[in-house]
C-alpha cells in the first residue's frame, strides 16, 4: 500500500469509526444515523422536501470554508420556510464575541487573547447527554433498506485498499473519547502538581490518555474537558483552577479565533497577518522531506499525515514556528538531533517507525550518517543507499536561515517606519 494512501486510509477509518459510534448511540435511543452522500447544497434541499423538514439544527463550524458552506445552506433552508438553529460547541467560546471585544479584529498575540478572555464569562458548561426520556415524543422512521441508503460505509466502499492496514492504535468515536478522558483525569497526581507536560519517550507513542484526534473530530466536547478538569483541580487543590491549566485548549481557541474570518490563513500570499517571506522553492527537497512523496506545501503535508490535523491549529502553528506571524524570535532554532536525543534518548521511537535504522547503536541512532562504515555494515544499513543522507548540514543551514530572517525583519521594520499606513 503506497504511503500516502495508507495514511489517508487511517484517517478515513477513524472517521468511519466515529460515525459507527454515533449510530450505535442512536440505536440505544431507538433512532439511527443517516449518512447522506453528496454535496450539502445539492442533497439537503432534496431531503428537506422528502422529509417535510420544519427545523434544521447543527453545530457552528468555526472555520472559513465551513462558515461559507453553512451560510449557503442556511439561506436555502430559510427560503424553504425552515427554521434554522445553530449552536456553538466545537469551541469553548463564540469566536465572534472574542473578535467583537477586540474592535472587530482577532487578537494576534496570546497575551491580548488572554486579556480578552479575562473580561468574558467562563465557557458554558456542557449540556447533559441525551437519554431515552428526552425523545419520548420523537419518532424516527427506519426503513428496511436504511443500511443500503443511509448506513455508514466501509473503507472498501470508499475505494481504499485494506489488506495491509495495521491494527487500530486510535479507535474513533465518543465512547472511546470519554473513556480516554476518564483515564486522563484519573492522573490526579499530575493535576495536583500541575505544570507544563514533560516530553518523554512514551509521549511520542499512542497512549490511552491521548485526546487530540477526538477534539479534532468532535468526539470529545472541548467544554466537557474544560469543565471536568476545572472541577477536578478545585476538588484537589481547594482553590479555583488557573487559566493556564487549560493551555492546550486555549491555544486551540486562539488559533481558531485568528482563522475564523481568514480563508487564506493557511497561505502566505493573500494572508493579511502573515509576513511575506521569500522562501526557497525547491520541489525536490520538499518531496524528500515529505517522506519521498510529492505532497502539498509545508502545513498541507501535515493535513495529509496527521490523524489530529486541525486546519486552524496546524496553519497557526506553522506560522508561529516559521516566525511568519504571532512570534518573531527567529534566532531560536530546533536541532533535530539534539531534540531527538532529549525526547527519545534510546531511540525507541526511531527503531519502531524507521526499522531500517533499528540495528544502529544508541550512540548513532539519532544521526546514523555519522556512524563509521563498519557500524553501518553491522547495522545492515548503508547511509545513502538504504537510508538517505541528510538533505542539508543543519548547523550551517540554520545559521544561514537566521541571517536571511534578520534581513526580512529589517526590511519589514523599515517599511513600517516609513509607511503612512496604520500598523
UniProtKB/TrEMBL annotation:
GO biological process: circadian regulation of gene expression; entrainment of circadian clock by photoperiod; negative regulation of DNA-templated transcription
Source domain of life: Eukaryota
Record-linked InterPro entries: Crypto/Photolyase_FAD-like_sf, Crypto/Photolyase_N_sf, Cryptochr/Photolyase_FAD-bd, Cryptochrome/DNA_photolyase_1, DNA_photolyase_N, Rossmann-like_a/b/a_fold
Pfam families per the UniProt record, alphabetical: DNA_photolyase, FAD_binding_7
Cofactor detail note: Binds 1 FAD per subunit.
Molecular function, one GO term: DNA binding
Coiled-coil positions: none
Annotated ranges, domain Photolyase/cryptochrome alpha/beta: 1-92
Record-level GO cellular component terms: cytoplasm; nucleus
Residues that, per the record, bind FAD: 308-310
Keywords: FAD, Flavoprotein
Cofactor(s) in the UniProt record: FAD
Signal peptide from the UniProt entry: none
Similarity comment: Belongs to the DNA photolyase class-1 family.
UniProt name for this protein: Photolyase/cryptochrome alpha/beta domain-containing protein
Originating species: Hyalella azteca
Taxonomic lineage: Eukaryota, Metazoa, Ecdysozoa, Arthropoda, Crustacea
Amino acid at each position: 500500500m503506497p504511503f500516502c494512501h495508507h495514511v489517508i486510509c487511517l484517517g478515513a477509518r477513524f472517521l468511519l469509526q466515529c460515525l459507527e459510534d454515533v449510530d450505535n448511540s442512536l440505536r440505544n435511543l431507538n433512532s439511527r444515523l443517516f449518512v447522506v452522500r453528496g454535496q450539502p447544497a445539492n442533497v439537503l434541499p432534496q431531503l428537506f422536501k422528502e422529509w417535510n423538514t420544519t427545523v434544521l439544527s447543527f453545530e457552528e463550524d468555526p472555520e472559513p470554508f465551513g462558515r461559507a458552506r453553512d451560510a449557503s445552506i442556511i439561506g436555502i433552508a430559510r427560503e424553504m420556510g425552515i427554521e434554522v438553529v445553530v449552536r456553538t460547541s466545537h469551541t469553548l467560546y463564540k469566536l465572534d464575541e472574542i473578535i467583537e471585544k477586540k474592535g472587530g479584529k482577532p487578537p494576534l498575540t496570546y497575551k491580548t487573547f488572554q486579556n480578552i478572555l479575562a473580561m468574558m464569562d467562563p465557557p458554558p458548561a456542557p449540556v447533559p447527554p441525551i437519554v431515552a426520556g428526552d425523545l419520548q415524543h420523537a419518532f424516527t422512521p427506519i426503513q428496511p433498506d436504511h443500511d443500503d441508503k443511509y448506513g455508514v460505509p466501509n473503507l472498501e466502499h470508499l475505494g481504499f485498499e485494506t489488506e495491509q492496514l495495521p491494527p487500530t492504535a486510535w479507535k474513533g468515536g465518543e465512547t472511546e473519547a470519554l473513556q480516554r478522558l476518564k483515564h486522563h483525569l484519573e492522573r490526579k497526581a499530575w493535576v495536583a502538581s500541575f505544570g507544563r507536560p514533560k516530553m518523554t519517550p512514551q509521549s511520542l507513542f499512542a497512549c490511552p490518555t491521548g485526546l487530540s484526534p477526538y477534539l479534532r473530530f468532535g468526539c470529545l466536547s472541548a467544554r466537557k474537558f474544560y469543565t471536568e478538569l476545572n472541577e477536578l483541580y478545585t476538588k484537589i487543590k481547594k482553590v479555583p483552577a488557573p487559566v493556564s491549566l487549560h493551555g492546550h485548549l486555549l491555544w486551540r481557541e486562539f488559533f481558531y479565533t485568528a482563522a475564523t474570518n481568514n480563508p487564506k490563513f493557511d497561505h502566505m500570499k493573500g494572508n493579511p497577518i502573515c509576513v511575506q517571506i521569500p522562501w526557497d522553492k525547491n520541489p525536490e527537497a520538499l518531496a524528500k522531506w515529505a517522506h519521498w512523496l510529492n505532497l502539498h506545501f509545508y502545513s498541507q503535508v501535515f493535513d495529509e499525515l496527521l490523524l489530529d490535523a486541525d486546519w486552524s491549529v496546524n496553519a497557526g502553528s506553522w506560522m508561529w514556528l516559521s516566525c511568519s506571524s504571532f512570534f518573531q524570535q527567529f534566532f531560536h532554532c530546533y536541532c533535530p538531533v539534539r531534540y531527538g536525543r532529549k525526547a527519545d534518548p534510546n531511540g525507541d521511537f526511531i527503531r519502531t517507525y524507521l526499522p531500517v535504522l533499528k540495528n544502529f547503536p544508541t550512540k548513532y541512532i539519532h544521526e546514523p550518517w555519522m556512524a563509521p562504515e563498519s557500524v553501518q555494515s553491522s547495522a545492515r544499513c548503508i547511509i545513502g543507499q538504504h537510508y538517505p543522507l541528510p538533505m542539508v548540514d543543519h548547523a550551517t543551514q540554520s545559521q544561514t536561515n537566521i541571517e536571511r530572517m534578520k534581513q526580512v525583519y529589517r526590511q519589514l521594520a523599515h517599511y513600517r517606519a516609513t509607511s503612512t499606513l496604520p500598523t
